C-alpha cells in the first residue's frame, strides 16, 4: 500500500512539475514579449515625430535606451516564430542605432563615427553582431523581403521615416506593408518629375533585393504607389543625405 502511494505521489508530483514548468516557460515568454515591445513603443512614441527623432530630448532618457539594449541582449529566441524573430530584429536594429547615436551625440552624421555600421558590435539575443550583420544575416538573407529596407532606419535624413511604434510579431507584415507604402508615396523620399523620377540610392545598393520581387525598380515601386509612375519615366538616383535624421524641436 505504501509503495503504491509513494508511486502515486511521485507520478503526480512529476506531472505537476512538468506542467508547472511549461506554464512557467510560456508565461516568461509572454512577459518577455510584452515588456520589450511595449517599452520600444513607449520610447518611440515619445521621441519620434513625423519619422524624425528628437535627439536633444532623448539625451535625458538614455537610461531607458540602456535598459532596452539589455533586453535586446538577453532576449530568448529559442522558441520564437519567424514573425517574432523578424519583428525583434527590426526593433533591435532601430533601437541600437539610436543608442549608438546617443553615445556620440551631438553628432552631424553617423558616417562621422568610424565603424558605426561595420565595427561596433552589440549583443543581440545572445550573439555579438554589428548593425550590418544584423541587417543582412538576420533579416535580409533569411526573409528575402525587400520591404525591410523601409523599416530599418540608419539615422540619416535620406532614410525612410522611422515608425513611432514597435514592430510586433502579430502585426509585422501589416506594418511592413504600411511603412513601404508610406515611404514610396512620400514626395521627399520619391522625387517624381514629369519625365523622370529620382529615387533613393537604397534602390541602387540593394538592387538585387528589389529585382527579386519585380522585373524592374519602377515596377517594384509602382506596386505600392497610390498613383503609379509612368513606365516610360527614367529612373535616377539622388545623392544620399547622411545628415542626422534629427527632428526640429
From TrEMBL:
Domain DUF547 positions: 78-181
InterPro entries per the UniProt record, alphabetical: DUF547 (IPR006869)
Protein's UniProt name: DUF547 domain-containing protein
Top-level taxon: Bacteria
One Pfam family linked to the record: DUF547
Source organism of this protein record: Pontibacter cellulosilyticus
